[in-house]
Design brief:
alpha+beta, 13 strands, six-stranded mixed sheet, 3 domains, Beta-Lactamase, 10 helices
């Protein structure tokens, strides 16, 4: 009866004897380790957690002190992958002597990711509202300024003076265009079925034609990915902005890789999607500075003196309009922008 209850828990339950040899592991534990209880049982903790010396030390300490231990967000390396867990260790007593340890491991990677994603979306929405308000406030006097310059230009006969009014008009138009970019797309997506690889190949052709340096673009496509329903022009603009950012990051000298995969059971904005398209734009540049990582999708944030800081912000906004999300991971030599686009309607996780 107890085994049946433990096997139906979502948390991994492991029972060790005083020599830290595994006596029992439940079904969730088998899933976490990717192995059967028959093979795992009788292995010692140092074999099961061979890359986690701190965790082994914690188990040994619990045996010696007979005290329970709780820890949160511990990174464990299991089967060549890293997972984040909350864990608790409880000494099992028999006649006032420790007879073993009961270890509970709860994988929290998904919960942490959802929390991080919600925080990211909330911050972006706040920044977007502030920028939109600022852009609207600037556009109104800017229109008046341009109109006044046009009227003045009509009254002037001296070509040299007209040159100044033309500069005012041209700069007003440039600022108007910048404000329009800051406001982002103002039309709902015109969606239709399309092949993501045709979109990526068009972008590859465009970027290769623009590149003046030695930029190599490799592809790693999953040909089984079905058609997606999206606005082709908006999708091209979003992905092109990300790829151009990668070209600038490698300083027009390096390798960029387009990679497509199916991502299963993903949560975006409190909705759970069974199938999601993942497009990775990977570059071997120097990477994103750590203090910039949490700001790169904000408008007007850029690490380049000549940049406007709008490319990634606009890309994120366009992908958000498709119920998707862009995430970034970066280290020197390997920066990955991952674009997630649902392949179906999602289910509300609050239900």
């Amino acid at each position: 009866m107890h085994k049946k209850i433990l096997d139906n828990l979502n948390e991994a339950i492991l029972w060790f004897d005083t020599g830290l040899k595994l006596i029992y592991i439940n079904t969730a534990g088998e899933v976490m380790f990717g192995d059967s209880a028959r093979h795992l049982t009788a292995q010692v903790a140092s074999e099961l957690f061979s890359h986690n010396t701190t965790f082994i030390h914690d188990l040994q300490s619990c045996i010696k002190t007979n005290e329970a231990l709780v820890n949160r967000e511990l990174s464990l390396q299991l089967n060549n992958r890293t997972i984040t867990t909350n864990f608790s260790v409880t000494p099992l007593m028999d006649d006032n002597q420790t007879s073993g340890l009961l270890v509970e491991l709860q994988q929290v990677d998904r919960h942490l990711r959802i929390s991080k994603e919600e925080q990211l979306l909330a911050q972006q929405n706040t920044a977007k509202m502030l920028v939109r308000g600022l852009a609207h406030e600037i556009k109104n006097p800017l229109g008046g300024l341009r109109g006044a310059a046009q009227l003045l230009d009509m009254e002037l006969s001296d070509p040299e003076l007209k040159e100044y009014t033309q500069i005012i008009i041209a700069e007003s138009d440039r600022l108007q265009g910048l404000m329009d970019k800051m406001l982002g797309p103002n039309k709902p997506p015109q969606k239709s079925a399309l092949n993501i690889h045709e979109v990526l190949e068009r972008i590859r052709t465009l970027v290769q034609a623009e590149a003046t340096g030695n930029v190599i673009i490799n592809t790693n496509y999953d040909p089984s990915i079905p058609e997606i329903v999206a606005d082709k022009n908006q999708l091209i603009q979003a992905l092109l902005n990300v790829v151009r950012n990668a070209v600038q990051a490698i300083n027009k000298q390096g390798v960029i890789t387009f990679k497509t995969r199916i991502h299963r059971q993903m949560t975006i904005g409190r909705k759970r999607y069974r199938l999601t398209l993942r497009v990775d734009i990977i570059d071997n540049g120097p990477g994103v500075e750590p203090d910039m990582m949490h700001q790169i999708f904000y408008p007007m944030i850029t690490g380049r003196a000549e940049g406007t800081g709008l490319g990634l912000s606009i890309a994120q906004s366009l992908i958000n309009h498709h119920n998707g999300l862009i995430e970034c991971t970066s280290e020197p030599g390997n920066t990955v922008f991952s674009i997630y686009l649902p392949l179906e309607d999602g289910h509300d996780t609050n239900r």
